[in-house]
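Shapes recur. One chain:

:::
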Amino acid sequence: MINPKSVFICIAAFLMPFVSSGQEKSVTVTPGKSCPEEEFKAIMARHNAVGLAVAVVDRSKILFVDSYGYKDLDAGIPWETDDLLRIASISKSFTATGILQLVEQGKMSLDADISDILGYRVRNPKYPDKAVTVRMLLSHTSSMNDSNGYFSMDSLSDKSWGNYEPGTGYQYCNLGYNTLGAIIEKVSGERFDRYIADHILKPLGVYAHHNVHELDPDKFVKIYRYERSDSSYKVSNAYMSIDKQLEQYTLGYSTPVFSPTGGLKISVKDLAAVMMMHMNGGKSDGVRILDRSSCKLMQSEIVPTNYEGEFYGMAMLRTDDFLKGFRLVGHDGLAYGAHTAMFWHPKKKFGFIVMTNGCNSTTREVFADILCESAECLYRYFIK
């Protein structure tokens, strides 16, 4: 356990200039733009954040990217902008992108019965005659839920369903996206982590992966879970080895080991590059990842969520609550203690990436305060 008081002291020490180490931080700032470092220091102190990484983009250009605090608190290692964080549910957007690529290629249909793809019957037992489709999984309208867990395909049982007919209501569901990962394997014949890497990550030129063994472990940003019971921090095991699971891997069944619902590891800088692809209709630097129509579908308002004024599309939601005065599209994430956000304005074409690897932030309505305050800071300095 790590006491928050020690976190405050360590962060304060880190935020002093690098006098003795000679180390220089990697910061990208567009010429003529100011650097809101002092304000981010204040935001971190207010929420007792271990580390924070931010980026702001305008159309096809990163205006500013920086990181503060620690990726390893005990070792005193600062968080650099090319370090890798497990980004939690923003990972769903990569899974949805993979699905829509296969739809574009004519290899599957959004309205296909997932039973036909997986090779076994998947039904809400209360509605046995109603097919559960790929489209429903993407929009969280399948009536599937996480009450039986979601770390194994064995979780997909009679206990994993709501009391309403598939296609008629919204229920956020991690198991649904792990199931979509299995569907990618069944349709493509490729292991999930390799499919995402070969068809999305590598074409975009970003360094990221769902498989910890494909990445430099020295780049991992440790995640710290705040324990409210004793006001301490505990390191989360977010990057554990999966060697043994890979030895007996079965396509379409073992998929949750990669967590299609939340397991991508990527840097703040590279996630900003991915966001710009979505912002610009599925294309980045001449490389097309998705058709414009698929991007529009992902970002559409398919179903209202549990929050007023918020709508879910396909691994993307539209919300008025992240940056006051604007309806943005994107996704947030929370897992192991990390908070992440990727949101942009679909018409004005500005967007934000915010990541923290541990804090005791409260939640303002929908999103963690530290995420919203950081985005507001970026907006004031670089967009407004």
In short: Residues 8-24 have pLDDT under 50 and may be disordered.
